[in-house]
Design brief:
Helix 3 packs parallel to helix 6 and helix 8 packs antiparallel against helix 10. A four-stranded mixed beta sheet has the order 1-4-5-8, covered by helices on one side. The chain contains ten helices and eight strands. A hairpin with a 2-residue loop joins strand 2 and strand 3. It is globular. By secondary structure, the chain is an alpha+beta fold.
Length: 386
């Protein structure tokens, strides 16, 4: 059941994570970007405090919570100006999939490290020619004795240089039908045949993007996560948390920008009163706040549904939450920059870089147009156009 009132534990978690985020803040993130390195200090401290693994099972070093708790962590870090993108990837996607479908050995090997931050896993699904169509994935795995041989390409894979392994979405051939079906493999980044190349991004972030080439990467049988025949069930066990966490990322960013604009509008005086007294300034900021709050409600609903085991309900809500949060974030950032005028474009105020960053939540991990397609035919029952 979705509750509109957060528990005392959730409020305490918000406060504690917000305090951690403020100790680092936007200046820390900007410094790591300028130095071309990941935010290792913040990642390590968040892991030590138990925030990275709040969604993972207690018996494997986690907090025993769910995506509800992990989304709070990411949102509050973002609202403090120091979000951790790899929270979406390592504990939310990879950790969740392994916790739900992994073997006991896979859980013992990976979950404690993912929970405390000492190990990190990237996630590889996007391909150059597949776009948002996961059914066109061409990365394939074929059996070679007891092993698997994995071949293919992936693009826009976050944080590979930080990762110990990548959870790769590939396809295997169904022996009965000959058709390809999706499967998940844990691929060590040091495996022979595994190649990575950094993508030169206009958007500057602490976490870099990579193209991967998998050239007959040999994997043992135990690299396969879950049942070979489970297919999309296992895949969407990771994709729904990804959408929920992307919403948290966007809401946190939007809150950060809005707070900066409100502070500026409260103090900045051009004529006789602060500019925030004028409705042309105040009302758009109020609308941005409303949109962010509404997005959070849908995100919380999606997280609660997912944690309750309602994968179908969570899928619909997670897509809507990601859509709403992306739109709210872009509008909040745009209005914040506009409120500051020329100052909104200076390094001093640190908002201009968010103009580009905010758009990521509209594009990744699935475009807003594909979400509208999903809602059109899954929720409304309209015929597909593709």
């Amino acid at each position: 059941m979705t509750t509109l009132i957060e528990t005392a534990e959730h409020k305490a978690l918000r406060d504690a994570v917000a305090a951690l985020g403020r100790r680092y803040g936007r200046d820390y993130v900007a410094r790591t970007v300028a130095e071309g390195r990941p935010p290792t200090e913040l990642w390590a401290e968040a892991g030590k405090l138990g925030y990275l693994g709040v969604n993972l099972p207690e018996e494997h070093g986690g907090g025993g919570g769910g995506i509800t708790e992990l989304s709070i962590v990411l949102e509050e870090l973002g609202a403090a100006g120091s979000p951790l993108l790899m929270l979406i990837v390592s504990p939310a996607i990879c950790g969740t999939v392994i916790a739900r479908f992994g073997t006991e050995d896979q859980k013992r090997t990976w979950l404690p490290g993912l929970a405390d931050g000492s190990r990190l896993m990237a996630f590889g699904i996007t391909e150059p020619d597949a776009g948002s169509n996961s059914h066109r994935i061409t990365t394939t795995a074929r059996r070679d004795g007891a092993d698997w041989l994995l071949t293919g390409r992936k693009v826009f894979i976050s944080g590979v240089d930080m990762a110990d392994a990548v959870l790769i979405v590939g396809r295997t051939e169904d022996a009965r039908t000959g058709r390809l079906k999706p499967c998940l493999f844990i691929v060590p980044t040091e495996a022979p045949g595994f190649q990575k190349r950094a993508i030169d991004m206009e958007l500057k972030a602490a976490e870099r993007q990579f193209e991967l080439v998998l050239d007959d990467v040999r994997l043992p049988a135990e690299a396969l996560v879950g049942d070979e025949d489970a297919g999309l069930l296992q895949l969407f066990a990771g994709l729904n948390p990804e959408r929920i966490m992307t919403a948290a990322f966007a809401i946190g960013m939007g809150r950060y920008a809005l707070a900066k604009a409100v502070e500026y509008a409260r103090d900045r005086t051009v004529w006789k009163t602060p500019i925030g007294a004028h409705q042309a300034i105040a009302h758009p900021l109020a609308q941005a706040h409303i949109d962010l709050e509404l997005s959070r409600l849908m995100m919380q609903k999606a997280a609660h549904l997912y944690d309750a085991g309602d994968d179908i309900g969570a899928g619909e809500a997670a897509n809507m939450a990601k859509y709403a949060a992306g739109e709210a974030c872009v509008k909040a950032v745009d209005q914040a920059v506009h409120t500051l005028g020329g100052n909104g474009l200076t390094r001093e105020y640190g908002l201009a870089s968010l103009i580009t960053a905010a758009r990521v939540s509209r594009i990744a991990p699935v475009s807003r147009e594909m979400i509208l397609n999903y809602v059109s035919h899954q929720t409304l029952g309209l015929p597909k156009s593709y």
